Amino acid sequence: MSFKVPLTPISRPAKASVGKTGLWRFLKPVIELKKCKKCGLCWMYCPDIAVTFDEMGFPHINYDFCKGCGICANECPTGAIKMVREGL
Amino acid sequence: MTSRMDVKKLVLTSNYAAAYAAKLARAEIISAYPITPQTTVVEKLAEFIERGELKAKMIRVESEHSAMAACIGASATGARVFTATSSHGLLYMYEMLWWAAGARLPIVMGVVTRAIAPPWNIWTEHADILSPRDSGWLIFFAESAQEVLDMILQAYKVAENEQVLLPVMVGWDAFISSHTAEPVDVPSQEIVDEFLPPRKSAAFLLDVKDPVSHGNLVFPDFYMEFRYLMQRGMESARDIIRKVDEEFGKIFGRRYGGLIEKYRCDDAEYALITLGGSSGDAREAVDKLRENGVKIGLCRIRVIRPFPVQDVVECLSNKEGVIVVERDISMGLCGVLATEIASVLFMNGIQPKFASFIAGLGGREVSVEDFLKMLDFSLKEFQRGNKRVGPHWYGVKEEVIP
Ligand code: SF4
Ligand code: SF4
């Protein structure tokens, strides 16, 4: 194997240094944009920076990194975000 | 006129000798929390900094856990770091000890050995310094104030060696050493600088211009390799400790024999094994027995980790009997040293007669007379054909045991 481990594990700043954390998710946030007021609270509370906005100002979720914690759904004042079981 | 070979003869306790050593090593960051009997180490260092004699930053913290955390952070930036603690303080930083070793940081720490409560007791016992023996710290143990000073200088040189890159704790006994003043040769800064240049080596460095983080998650497919690398560092350390001791001897004129110190051992039929401050009394007991024609020697353990396997095997392979006297007890088994020495002997196919004593817990005195009694008892048992003696709790007051 040409790869050699260093003396102690170190990591350099990178997008999600432990990889695509979306794989950890079993509940998935789904935004019903009709109910969305573009307040941005989901973006602000998301601990994984997995919420981004489109040019219209609507939030979208990056499912590569969303861990499915449900914080956004809990914070959304209009109930626009539902947590649904993965694969359904 | 001052020369680089100038030596100041000062009367120092082991605690002050440790502070002088950290100063001569040009420690840049010191972080510690006070605990009896360690306090005067850090007091002296604070005084050095206050007087402008030592250019170091003293980081004050609210606990030993934080003290070690500060040392870890500082050492990760490449600084030379010193701290000292004792007993409960060492236990309180126990988790951080493993982080320091796993991050391969060459921190040097003084440990003034003291018993662990309850019952509260501030006197010497080796339970504290023996507890982290599996953590990846090198563990040295000094007998005198001079050795404390010399050992700390050597400890930096060993810890910072690229083949080692592991932290080192240097132990000495509460009060017997920590608060007992002895004449100490304090070398000049110039000559220490020659022996110990500024720290260069690191497994990684924290640098804002090239940021890295350490302490990452490693899955089962690579965790084992990191532990293997630590063990390899430990194995390399044995030879490096011997070489550093040799180099130290050439420069400073004092040598200690590496991982163990042998006294009248070569032609001995019996060997007494000790650790730390009471070894002086053990040496006297050996002399007394020699006067009576008993061929006995002393093997003082100076390095507990890495364990001096080869040295112990060489020293004990031709002995009729081995007697271990130690200030610790691994509850539910026997003394730690006895266990380790017996296992090393067994694994190398050596089976001398073997006696083991637990003595002097919680600072109870172990005098020349006490050593003579233990040795006398062991030799008689050996002659009677008993190959295994003890473990005995020497001097325990049976009359007060319910
Ligand atoms: S479920 Fe959690 S991780 Fe996913 S978008 Fe919402 S707040 Fe972020
Ligand atoms: S919290 Fe709800 S309403 Fe606010 S932006 Fe997010 S989805 Fe829209």
**Share in helix of chain B:** 25-40%
Query: How far apart, in Å, are the first and last alpha carbons of chain B?
Result: 68 Å
Looking at how many chains there are and whether they match, the oligomeric state comes to: heterodimer
CATH class annotation of chain A: Alpha Beta
Largest interface: A-B, 11 and 19 residues
Which strand order do you get reading across the main beta sheet of chain B?
3-2-4-5-7-6-13
Spatial shape of chain A? elongated
Largest sheet of chain B: 7 strands, mixed
Beta-strand segment tally of chain A = 5
Order of helices and strands of chain B: EHEHEHEHHEHEHEEHEHEEHEEHEHEHE
**CATH architectural label of the largest domain in chain B:** 3-Layer(aba) Sandwich
Q: What's the CATH architecture name of chain A?
A: 2-Layer Sandwich
- Ranges of chain B with pLDDT <50 over ≥5 residues? none
Q: Do you know the CATH topology of the largest domain in chain B?
A: Rossmann fold
- From the 3D structure, determine the CATH topology of chain A: Alpha-Beta Plaits
Tell me how many strands of chain B there are.
16
Radius of gyration of chain B, CA atoms, in whole angstroms = 21 Å
- Based on secondary structure, the structural category of chain B is alpha/beta
- What's the end-to-end separation of chain A, in Å? 41 Å
What do the pLDDT scores of chain B average to? 97
Q: Taking Cα atoms only, what radius of gyration of chain A do you get, to the nearest Å?
A: 16 Å
